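ok so for the tutorial part 2 we go from a plain amino acid sequence to predicted structure tokens. step 1 is just haveing the sequence, like this:
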Amino acid sequence: QVQLVESGGGLVQAGGSLRLSCAASGRTFSRSCMGWFRQAPGKEREFVAAITWSGGSTGYADSVKGQFTISRDNAKNTVYLQMNSLKPEDTAVYYCAADSRTIIGSCYMSPPEYDYWGQGTQVTVSS
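step 2 — the prediction. this is what the tokens look like for a chain of 127 residues:
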């Protein structure tokens, strides 16, 4: 059974940092794109960042460029999201996702392209 388990969320003051982790089990995703998405109350799920299987290519939403960094450790089957200079508008449930296909080129940024999802971790940024 494939599982993606996020951790590292919590409550932080504006300007603070958090590091989210997503541990995969049940299969290896070393050839897959991995992505982070977020969903705030009353809003649609939106793309945050993605990384190719080699880690050689990353993509970010304009709203988090220069603020968030995605990385992965294939040996640990884990992907990370380092979030710095957090703002209240970053408050959301953050989801890890995997696109199980072998992608040549850049990763997709659309949620339907990802077929495995974690349960989400809450990030709350207070002003």
